[in-house]
Amino acid sequence: MARYTDSVCRLCRREGQKLFLKGDRCYGPKCSVAKRPTPPGQHGQSRKKVSQYGIQLREKQKTRRAYGVLESQFASYFEKAVTMKGITGENLLSLLERRLDNVVYRLGFGESRAHARQMINHGHITVNGKKVDIPSYIVNTGDVISVKERTAKSEYFKSIREEGVRNLPKWLTLDAENLKGSVIALPQRDDIDLTIEEHQIVELYSR
What we know:
There is one protein chain. The protein is an alpha+beta fold. The chain has 2 domains: 9-96 and 192-205, Ribosomal Protein S4 Delta 41, Chain A, domain 1, CATH 1.10.1050.10; 99-185, Structural Genomics Hypothetical 15.5 Kd Protein In mrcA-pckA Intergenic Region, Chain A. The chain has helices at 9-15, 32-35, 52-67, 71-83, 88-97, 100-106, 113-121, 149-152, 158-163, 198-205; strands at residues 125-127, 130-131, 144-147, 172-175, 180-183. Strands 2-1-3-5-4 form a 5-stranded antiparallel beta sheet. Helix 3 (52-67) packs across helix 10 (198-205). The longest helix has 16 residues, at 52-67. The two termini are 28 Å apart.
């Protein structure tokens, strides 16, 4: 599978906002967007008029990069969102939020979505008591996501047990002591903290 191997901070700078790809670093003074808010490259500071297509493309790329999905995966999510009841753009974001790697990240088990994907790939996460090693697995209401008992004993999870998790979305609950999270509802549009204009993505795919 194709992987992006360059600095992920360049992606945030290219999109002009924090995509929270580096965990705690994104909240501190070392964040690249805070230090260098211009796009990467020697022409990063030049101002160019962006076409409507360019605006739509940037929204799609920003969303895709934030959730760490490939182009073909993103297109598949959009196709599924079109067939669902409701607003297509909101359906798309809901599907992305319900990815297991994103849920593990939201619960605080992973420092970033990339870290959460690694934990899932290595078999450290269970869903309803069964190991799931597919980061793109879509969770549903009532699912319980846990850290495997052996993994939960590591020092890494000490701060979660003691302090809990900041910014836990209201569609999830967390039993910090036992490192278990539950999906109590499907994510709504106002649960998503990323600045995304999903209607631009819908218009892009409708061209």
